[in-house]
Design a protein that fits this description.
Blueprint: H1 4-28, H2 43-48, H3 52-84
Helix pairs in contact: 1-3
């Protein structure tokens, strides 16, 4: 199936990429971010990210969902480890 370290790496990198490549540049209003009209952003995010409030909402919603994913993943790893008798 795959090692747990691979899954840990994928989940960790997803958070890093979302926060450092999308949220922080928008909040800091860096050149090339979605707020300055980058061609790599979807139109929905470009429209939604116009104000600092909306940018922080994107980060907060992601953080809540990310913590939910981490919690579920930890629960699965604990239960499968316990069920396997390790």
């Amino acid at each position: 199936m795959g090692s747990p370290e691979v899954y840990d790496s994928i989940v960790g990198y997803a958070a890093y990429a979302y926060i450092s490549w999308l949220c922080l540049p928008m909040i800091e209003n860096r050149p090339g971010s979605c707020t300055t009209g980058s061609e790599y952003c979807s139109p929905l995010i470009r429209v939604f990210s116009k104000t600092i409030f909306n940018q922080v909402v994107l980060l907060v919603v992601f953080s809540i969902l990310y913590l939910w994913i981490i919690w579920a993943y930890i629960k699965v790893r604990i239960i499968t480890t316990w069920a396997a008798g390790l």
